[in-house]
Structures are given as structure tokens and as C-alpha cells.
Amino acid sequence: LKGICFDPEPYQKFNWAYNPECGRTFDEMKVVVRSRGRAVMSAMATEYPDMTFLAFWLLSTFRCRTGQPDPIYGLYPAFIDGLWDAAPPKMTIVDGCEAGYCLRTQSGALRTAQSIRRDCAEFVSPENRVRYRRQISAGFGCYLDAYVPPRWFANGDHRVTMTTLFHNMNYL
Fold first, then answer.
1. Beta bridge partners of 95
2. Using an 8 Å Cβ cutoff, are 97 and 139 in contact?
3. What is the pLDDT at residue 152?
4. Pairwise CA distance, residues 147 & 92, whole Å
5. What is the largest CA-CA distance in the chain?
6. What's the pLDDT score for residue 9?
7. Which uninterrupted H or E stretch holds 28?
8. How far, in Å, CA of 164 to CA of 142, rounded?
9. Angle of the 26-47 helix axis to the 76-86 helix axis, nearest 10
10. Closest CA to 97 of 88, 89, 108, 87
11. CA torsion angle for 120, 126, 132, 134 (degrees, to 10)?
């Protein structure tokens, strides 16, 4: 086993949003959520300190939203900051950049990877930024539904999307 894959996407009823009805302020909840991230990483790192931790989304989900609040992922950066609080130096942490499915050029992938390393660091606390930049890796998955959407199933013409898939596989 190389490591763990974490999918933080808000499926159905769960999301990372702040609920003002919880009886705590947003800042108080950030402290609680960060401590949960720290506890999760501490438990994993105790068993497997040099693993690869892959998340389909880490901070790349905020790459295009710099400085803007996020109604769904509002507390997620605090959880990630907690992960970094406890991440051992030998651990590889990969931001899977799920939005990378739509990348079509090598230069786009390189710009996105640089942005994950540089720009996304603003979402972790200052004490974690050096470690973040040193240990973060960008990963780009291949989601076949992005290449063969249902509208093309009807006419059976998969050539355009398969050409795009093979082109992308050569540079990612």
C-alpha cells in the first residue's frame, strides 16, 4: 500500500460549510476543525509516516477563488491546515487537482502545478507555508467521463474525445 486517497467532495448532506446555528463563531469553528485535521493526520502519521497522502482536492479547489469566501468549502482550509500541523517531513502530500480534468495543454498543467505550490499556500497558516511548499505535489487525474460525455454516446462518435484523452495522457 503506497498511501491513502482522500475525497473531500461534499456528497449529499455533508459539506465543509459553516453553520451559524452551531452556537460558535466561524473563527471558533476554524479552531475546532483545524484540531480535527491535526488529529486525523497524527493518527495516520503514527502508523505510516512516509506514506503518500493523495486528496482529489486539497487547496487547488480555492485556486480560482483567491480572497473569496466559499459557501461549501468554508471550513475545509482549516482542516487542511490541521493536516499540515501534524504532517511528518517524510510524507508526500498530493493535491489531486480534480479541476485538472479539463486541462488541455502542457503549459496549462505546468501553470496549475505552480499555482498549487505558490498561490495556494496563502490558505495555510504562516507557520505551515514553508513545509507546504516543500512537501506539496500536484497530481492530475484522468476522468474518462470528461472525455466521453453522455451526449456523444448517442451518435457513437468518440473519436474527438479519445484523441483529446491520448493527447492529454502524453503530457500529464
1. 55, 138
2. yes
3. 45
4. 29
5. 55
6. 79
7. helix 26-47
8. 11
9. 40
10. 108
11. 120
Q: Which amino acid is at 125?
A: S
Question: Which residues, 6 or more positions from 65, have their beta carbon under 8 angstroms from its beta carbon?
Answer: none
For cell 487537482, the residue is 97
Among positive and negative, which fits the CA dihedral 122, 35, 70, 26? negative
Instruction: Write out the chain's pLDDT in tens, 172 residues.
Output: 688 999 887 777 677 788 888 888 889 999 999 999 999 999 999 999 999 999 988 988 776 554 555 667 788 989 999 999 999 999 999 998 887 777 777 888 888 889 898 888 988 999 999 999 999 999 887 766 665 555 544 455 555 556 666 666 665 5
Strands (DSSP E) found in the chain: 3-6, 52-55, 92-95, 136-138
3-state SS, residue 25: coil
